[in-house]
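Q: Structure tokens for this one, please.
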Amino acid sequence: MFRRKSLVYACITVVLTVGLTAGVLFAEEPIRILGTVAFSGAAGNIGPAYDRAMKLAVEEINEEGIRGFSKIDYKVIDTETKPSVLKRKLSREVGTWKPDVMGGCALETTISPVCVEAPKYRIPAFVGGHLSMSKYMPPGEVPVTKWVVYYGYADYFAGQLAGRFFEEMGAKKVGIIAGDYDWGYSNGMGLKAYWEKNGKPFEISPVIYTPLDKTDYTTEMMIVKAEKPDAIFCPYTGAGWFSVATQLRDAGAMPRIMLYGTTYSNMGGAKITGAYGAESIYTLADHDPTSDAWKKFVKRWKAKYGEKAYPEAYTNNYYQVIYWIKEVYEKAQTKNSRVIIDLMQKTGFQNVCISPMGPLDGFGNNSGAKAAIVQFVPGAGDLDPTFGLHEVLVRVFETPKMTMHEILGELKGYKKLESDETYPRLK
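A: Here is the predicted structure, written as tokens:
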């Protein structure tokens, strides 16, 4: 009888121990985030900053703790800005490391594999930066899927906001220098859309597209100097992008207004360009340099990466997305991927951006996005006393409340700006 009771007690003890251990193991399970970032190739000049931003957020969150989970495990792979490389590496990591969330691509060339593979693997994914629309237009290679979520505003909107800004600034002739790929085309489509919808308030010329691996824009500068536009819109051009402003100044071709696209983003881009090249330059931005949230972010960045460091292009977005993921998992209290992706589409979050994360619909549209325009003016600011420029907030624009499908419907059959066509001013 004693042996029988002892055996029963032992079995109960084992069951309780196993159950408690399983509960502890679940509670201590990490959230695995796979960063898909370019450290080389055409986007290698902006990718490392994305990685630094995500690492900073991960370290802060792990110090604070995550309710229901042990920590965030972060791993990054170099996409090399090559779709085939990213696809191969994703397959390897999904099979071995088994990430719960993945993302962080820059150019549309590497956004494509994420949008294709995320639904296949049933892994929630995020695309850093802003949404390039022309890649989704038939016969585009990127599927519209709820498994990939976005933040910020579409480049089609960026082009329209640029057009609005140029008209408000009294520009009569607007040129565009853009990368010869989807991002450049979509920004140009937005500019063209504004021009057509608002009575063609300025001439659009010259229209210049540059190869992504190009760094010397001597020929392009000669064209701009000859055309004499009083405004230039410069979405991402590729490897030499940060030097476009400097090369314009050196060639004596700098117009009255130069507006960099969203990837330039903040003082981090200006510092790379240098005070000489960036002085008086405007840029489409996704942050308010006067906000307390931005100031705290800059101070955290400097504490981590050095007093002379400064958050670079899109870093606030990548920093914010990690906190947004934390928010979603704490709400979900599960790692079930379907629950997570559905909750991502209902969860709003904002800390260091004007454009909040979410709430999103079933295809990754951000309904709460705003856009800012900042200018770099002479005189060191409190956030970076070692540099000779500081940011001034010039405008904040609401972006149109349109879904991805509505944007694609508007763009259906729409042609990009062409270098050999004329776009005259009518008023």
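A few notes: The longest strand covers residues 389-398. The two ends are 102 Å apart (CA to CA).
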